[in-house]
DNA sequence: ACTCAATAGATGCAACTTGCATATATAGAC
DNA sequence: GTCTATATATGCAAGTTGCATCTATTGAGT
């Protein structure tokens, strides 16, 4: 298809909130399971997204040197981050309703837009 | 909020299909009414999106010099454009379902994510 | 000891996209 | 003659993305 890309931000906020403490490498896997699109997640952009969330004050981070293997940058959601997630929920709710409406209209103008018997 | 931007492409394909013939300036208004987000639509990016759709073979255009005022570049949907719209419908259907699922999960981990008694 | 793979995070850069300002031109109203 | 609405387009700075690449730690295999 081409476009659609992210919505990575709200999913990250959600995952960090749910896990309490989370680090990038681990989130890459969780993201694949919870992503809103099946578009491949670039690890580089994931790490950058997390740093950006920190710059915006949505998460804080510190190095975790416990355990084996290389150090992990562990993120925790801030109050502001949770507020941001709440805003995302409202936006995505609105967006998914708009899409539903659009799909109904669009299906009526194109031929053979298979709708699959579900719903 | 910040992000979310477009989904301008599928709405343009839909509008051009529904109208049969359509030009940019006119579509700017229709877009405001049918857009999936309430984000402001940049006219410049609208014109560029239409030219891009033409490059991709989704629409064809020609100048309409009838009527008063400056000439209009009138667009018509191609078969490929209609196919592309059909693909968009599938993608958006999938996406809106994913969002619904995500919203349910996310609401359960944040406090006071007002869901509005509707639905 | 040496090598390899998995884990973990990050940067460099070219290519692309976006937002904003601006340019061009026609036509009707005043 | 000037102003506004209509109509399309470009230039450029700033931001974003995809891909390749780099660093480093640890454990397993030989």
Textual characterization of the structure:
Chain A has a single domain, classed as Winged helix-like DNA-binding domain superfamily/Winged helix DNA-binding domain (Arc Repressor Mutant, subunit A, Orthogonal Bundle). Chain A has helices spanning 8-19, 24-34, 43-55, 79-107; strands spanning 22-23, 59-64, 72-77. Chain A is 55% helix and 12% strand. In chain A, strand 2 and strand 3 form a beta hairpin. The first copy, chain A, is mainly alpha-helical. A three-stranded antiparallel beta sheet of chain A has the order 1-3-2. Chain A has four helices and three strands. The radius of gyration of chain A is 18 Å and the shape is elongated. Chains A and B meet through helix 1 and helix 4 of A and helix 1 and helix 4 of B.
Q: Could you write a compact summary of the structure shown?
A:
Two copies of one chain form a homodimer. By secondary structure, the first copy, chain A, is mainly alpha-helical.
What labels would you give this structure?
homodimer; 119 residues; mainly alpha; Arc Repressor Mutant, subunit A; three-stranded antiparallel sheet; 4 helices; 3 strands; DNA-binding
Secondary-structure blueprint:
Two copies of one chain form a homodimer.
Chain A: H1 8-19, E1 22-23, H2 24-34, H3 43-55, E2 59-64, E3 72-77, H4 79-107
The structure holds a DNA duplex (30 and 30 nucleotides).
């Amino acid at each position: 298809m081409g476009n659609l890309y992210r919505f990575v931000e709200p999913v990250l906020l959600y995952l960090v909130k749910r896990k309490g403490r989370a680090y990038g490498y681990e989130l890459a896997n969780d993201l694949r399971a919870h992503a809103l699109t099946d578009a491949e997640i670039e690890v580089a952009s994931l790490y950058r997204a997390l740093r950006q969330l920190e710059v915006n004050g949505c998460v804080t981070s510190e190095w975790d040197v416990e355990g084996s293997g290389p150090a992990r940058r562990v993120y925790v959601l801030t109050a502001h981050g949770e507020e941001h997630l709440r805003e995302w929920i409202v936006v995505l709710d609105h967006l998914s309703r708009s899409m539903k409406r659009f799909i109904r209209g669009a299906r009526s103008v194109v031929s053979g837009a298979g709708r699959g018997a579900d719903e």
